[in-house]
Write a structure and sequence with these properties.
The complex is a heterodimer of chains A (about 350) and B (about 250). Chain A has about 350 residues and is of the alpha+beta class. Chain A has twelve helices and seven strands. In chain A, about 60% of the residues lie in helices and about 15% in strands. Chain B is an alpha/beta fold. The chains are: A alpha+beta (about 350), B alpha/beta (about 250).
């Protein structure tokens, strides 16, 4: 399941979308007003003229929008340039027909028909270009590129120390060394995987456990992790590698700088339609001032936003002597995503 | 037999080094002088251990490796030091720049052998080079008492005053003599201390106020009123302009 959706950057705008309709209305009127301003020297003259122009303009604009609304699904099947041509044709047909109708009423002949058609074509083309730029700016292609740039990284510090710990095990406890290397391999597989796909929470939890067991190897009794996972909705979908970097931070900033035992709490639970994850660790002030901590959180925040838009949040705070990171995201499963899609 | 001391906070890392030392026994005969799992433990245990070479992890809790090395450098029989790091690019740069020996984790047997031989013959690193390699101010100042290193937390120090070739370090509990130039201390701890006189640095946090000293044989001048000490310290006319700003902050 990818965040990739069914449209590409080169698709016609959705004429049933309120934002698109509003932009067309405003855009066309702005164009007309600009034209009037150019033609008339004074403000009041320009305003009077605009009222006259609007009286002709609004009916054709409204009619064109209704036609576009009705044909929108059909237009979506066309290639971009075909669809664009169709939109321009609709604009021409509507404005031409209305021009003819008004001309018929007033008895005025076909005078100015060409001018009306040219203006309609220009307006249609300009708005198409503008809306295309707009879709490009918010396109999933860009979001994907952004996601790839946000690929999370494990600290080299952790990699080399872990390899060192495994080396120390090879002679004394070869079986444990084997398990540790397997854990390390899986962790790196997860790190290098495509981070644009949703993964089930169960996978993320497995990853957390592998990571914790590697750190346990290095730190021994200094690291204690209290897991509270019985209410974790294991089928919930989420972006990959969201929780592991937070646990890594908790170890790096909360346990490693201390000489004694450091406790980390990991709680994941479902609250109605939300999934709540909370990781807390001892707060060691001198260490918190070092950089690197915020960056990982910013990275996760941005990825959550790309996957869930405004529906997810991540927060860090210090409560007494504990440093707490909380993530809240919507509870989505494979099933809810499918029904939303169809 | 080269006496080697191992300081690393991760037990597996210490085990690994011991295995490697055993593997190298014929090439570089060594014996284990001691082990420590953090910086403070190293300071405590090393002086009596008779170690000739210290294998020192730089990313340790309690006190960072480089500071440990700086305190040890004051010992009469200071050991040669080989720093060990998993991945600290800044530290490695500083080591290179100041010609200090270091190894990267995971450590290879042949590199370890070379480093041991070198450190065993070259002796302890020069304190100046260690100071230059340091990126952060120390958390402690140290005084060597016989074969023991006494650490004084920098935050406990009320003032530092130069007298002859020593600097008196005054805490609320007592005083010590250290052999470090006042200028270097002023530079390293610029954020903690302020110079009030040609020969005196006072902890910014310990300044409670100022009072005017009149008469006597001295010219009239200002004195620093200290937090927790009855003693008054004179402010020189040259420093007054800067020091008086503290009065506003306080």
């Amino acid at each position: 399941m990818s965040i990739k959706q069914n449209f590409t950057a080169d698709a016609l705008p959705d004429f049933r979308n309120l934002g698109v309709v509003a932009r067309i209305l405003l855009g066309v009127n702005a164009l007309a007003f600009a034209a009037v301003l150019v033609a008339e020297p004074g403000w009041s003259a320009a305003l009077e003229r605009f009222v006259l122009v609007a009286a002709k303009l609004e009916p054709s604009l409204a009619l064109a929008l209704v036609v576009l609304y009705a044909l929108s699904p059909a237009l979506a099947h066309l290639r971009y340039w075909q669809g664009g041509a169709a939109v321009v044709a609709i604009a021409l047909a509507v404005s031409g027909a209305l021009h003819a109708a008004i001309a018929g009423l007033t008895g005025d002949a076909a005078a100015g028909l060409l001018r009306t058609l040219a203006l309609a074509a220009i307006a249609a083309l300009l708005l198409l270009a503008y809306l295309r730029l707009l879709t490009r700016a918010y396109s999933p292609a860009l979001a994907e590129a952004r996601l790839q740039a946000l690929q999370s990284r494990i600290r080299p510090h952790f990699l080399f120390n872990s390899l060192n710990a495994v080396l120390s095990l090879i002679r004394r406890d070869p079986r444990r060394a084997e398990r540790a290397l397997e854990d390390l391999a899986e962790l790196f597989r997860a790190l290098m995987q495509d981070n644009r796909q949703f993964v089930p929470l169960a996978d993320e939890i497995a990853l957390l456990e592998r990571y914790a067991s590697l750190e346990q190897l290095r730190l021994g009794d200094r690291l204690k992790v209290d897991w509270t996972l019985q209410d974790a909705p294991r089928d919930a979908l989420m972006p990959p590698m969201v929780l592991q970097p937070i646990l890594e931070n908790a170890v790096y900033h909360g346990v490693e700088p201390g000489t004694g035992e450091g406790r980390i709490g990991v709680t994941i639970e479902r609250r109605g339609a939300r999934v709540l994850a909370r990781i807390d660790n001892p707060y060691i002030e001198e260490h918190a001032q070092r950089a690197g901590n915020r960056m990982a959180l910013e990275n996760i925040r941005e990825r959550l936003q790309l996957f869930f838009d405004a529906e997810a949040r991540i927060e860090r705070r210090v409560v007494g002597d504990r440093h707490v990171v909380e993530i809240e995201m919507p509870y989505r499963t494979l099933r809810t995503l499918r029904t939303a899609r169809s | 037999m080269l006496r080697v001391f191992i300081a690393d906070d991760e037990a597996p890392a210490r085990e690994r080094l011991k295995e490697l030392l055993a593997d190298l026994a014929t090439e570089v005969p060594t014996e284990l002088a001691g082990e420590a799992a953090n910086g403070l433990e190293t300071i405590e245990r090393l002086p009596a251990s008779g170690a000739q070479v210290l294998l020192l992890d730089i990313e340790m809790p309690g006190m960072r490796g480089l500071e440990v090395a700086r305190h040890l450098a004051g010992l009469e029989s200071a050991p040669g030091v080989v720093f060990i790091t998993a991945h600290d690019r800044h530290a490695v740069e500083a080591f290179e720049l100041n010609a200090l020996d270091y190894l990267m984790k995971p450590v290879r047997a042949e590199r370890l052998a070379a480093a041991l031989k070198k450190a065993g013959s070259a002796g302890p690193p020069a304190p100046e080079r260690l100071a230059q390699a340091a990126t952060q101010a120390r958390e402690y100042l140290s005084v060597i008492e016989r074969h023991r290193i006494v650490l004084v937390p920098v935050r406990d120090i009320v003032y530092l005053r130069a007298e002859m070739k020593y600097v008196t370090l005054r805490t609320r509990a007592g005083e010590h003599l250290i052999e470090e130039p006042l200028v270097a201390l002023e530079r390293e701890f610029a954020r903690v201390f302020v110079r009030v006189h040609r020969n005196c640095l006072v902890a910014r946090d310990a300044v409670r106020g100022f009072e005017r000293a009149l008469g006597g044989e001295d010219e009239p001048h200002w004195n620093v009123v200290l937090d927790g000490l009855a003693e008054r310290l004179p402010v020189s006319r040259r420093q007054w302009a800067e020091v008086r700003l503290l009065a506003k902050d306080a």
